[in-house]
Design brief:
Strand content: under 5%
Number of helices: 22
Distance between the termini: 16 Å
Number of strands: 0
Largest sheet: none
Order of helices and strands: HHHHHHHHHHHHHHHHHHHHHH
Shape: globular
Length: 385
């Protein structure tokens, strides 16, 4: 529909997006899922946002689940208020730390809607703590918490397809990081921005930001925090390079991340990265998928045994990738099994993820006369096929 509104035929759009016309036809007809790189390229060629092509946010699904979270309206208000945002009584520092940990845990455990509900009040309390600070150190500590909270906010709203809000949250994270007592937060913030740039197919800038993050960390001692941030930067770089078809560079990033993960030996909670050996192997599968080898991604991803310390949202995303890989490899039965694995581990994330809908639609188009199983799954998604 967007192509026709733009007055383009398939040939013209394929040329603008730098994809084959056969791929464009397959996606338009629902025979193959549109990859994140494909959707970003087509959106850029059409001059629209990727979430518009995905149909995000999924308002009908949100309505079925109780409507748009009221916390989202409060977040929009807070962002609109800017520097004039109303602050709340902060309470003691220990309470702010505990509440920040709570909203992070809600996101990691696939309860993003609940986390959004708590976030606006937490941000206003943090603003109150900064305004009431009587010393420079207290004020800088307040900005550290605020930067971390805005980073969490960016990931929450990004998950539901509210990309402009995610961008605003990263803007505020960067500003708070500059005023904090923690120089490592700047390296973390640019990694968040690189993620958003992937949805815009801005891979060159994303690559520069990954390198900027690594440069900021280069002279730092090898603490757990620094290692986790370095590893996270390499994983972000691997995904950007894979989508940009720079597979040699992507594999180099994976190799660097794998070496760092081996040093840590477990998933680290430092800077909310959850970086560790398991996360590296998940990204290795994702690089194969984004780099054009879905057969390898499907096999490796299905055989991968993830550590017990992996977060639910990360494991769920892995199974979503495996499902898309199986579809591209032509095995719809295994694809549906992977989707159900994702649903079991992280149902909320799976219900709202655009790639799940792309994958389920492709399975349904191929399997509608063979099985009712995919019909049950698409009904659960609220997806009309």
């Amino acid at each position: 529909m967007a192509r026709k509104v733009a007055g383009l035929n398939q040939q013209a759009l394929a040329q603008r997006a730098n994809y084959s016309i056969s791929m464009l036809r397959a996606v338009e007809q629902g025979r193959e899922p549109g990859s994140p790189a494909f959707v970003a390229a087509v959106a850029r060629a059409l001059g629209i946002e990727a979430e518009e092509l995905y149909g995000q946010p999924y308002r009908e699904t949100l309505d079925d689940d109780g409507g748009i979270p009221p916390g989202l309206t409060e977040l929009r208000t807070l962002f609109a208020e800017g520097r004039y945002a109303a602050a709340l009584e902060p309470g003691v520092t220990e309470e702010i730390e505990a509440d920040l940990a709570k909203v992070r845990d809600l996101r990691h455990s696939d309860r993003a809607r609940q986390a959004i509900e708590l976030t606006p009040v937490l941000l206003r309390r943090m603003a109150g703590a900064i305004r009431q600070a009587s010393t420079d150190s207290a004020r800088e500590r307040g900005y550290r918490y605020l930067a971390q909270a805005y980073g969490n906010t960016a990931q929450l709203v990004y998950r539901f397809g509210w990309i402009p809000l995610a961008t605003q949250a990263v803007d505020r994270m960067e500003m708070a990081a500059e005023r904090s007592d923690d120089p490592l937060l700047a390296a973390h913030a640019v990694q968040h921005r690189a993620l958003i740039l992937m949805s815009c197919a801005s891979y060159d800038t994303g690559t520069r930001l990954v390198q900027h993050s690594l440069d900021l960390l280069e002279s730092r001692p090898d603490s757990e925090e620094v290692l986790a941030l370095r590893g996270s930067a390499h994983l972000r770089g691997a995904m950007i390079d894979a989508r940009a078809c720079e597979l040699d560079r992507a594999r180099e990033h994976i190799a660097e991340a794998r070496a760092i993960g081996a040093r840590l030996g477990r998933s680290s909670a430092a800077y909310d990265t959850n970086f560790g050996p398991g996360n590296v192997e998940i990204h290795d599968v994702a690089v194969s998928l984004e780099g054009g080898d879905p057969g390898r991604a499907a096999r490796d991803g299905s055989e991968l045994r993830l550590p017990d310390d992996m977060r639910a949202n990360r494991v769920g995303h892995h199974w979503q990738d495996v499902a898309r890989a199986w579809v591209l490899a032509g095995d719809h039965a295994n694809a549906l099994r992977a989707l159900n694995n994702a649903r079991r581990v992280a149902p909320q994330q799976t219900r709202y993820h655009p790639q799940v809908r792309e994958t389920a639609r492709a399975i349904a188009m191929a399997e509608r006369r063979k099985s009712d199983s995919i019909a049950h799954f698409t009904n659960w998604l609220g997806l009309k096929v």
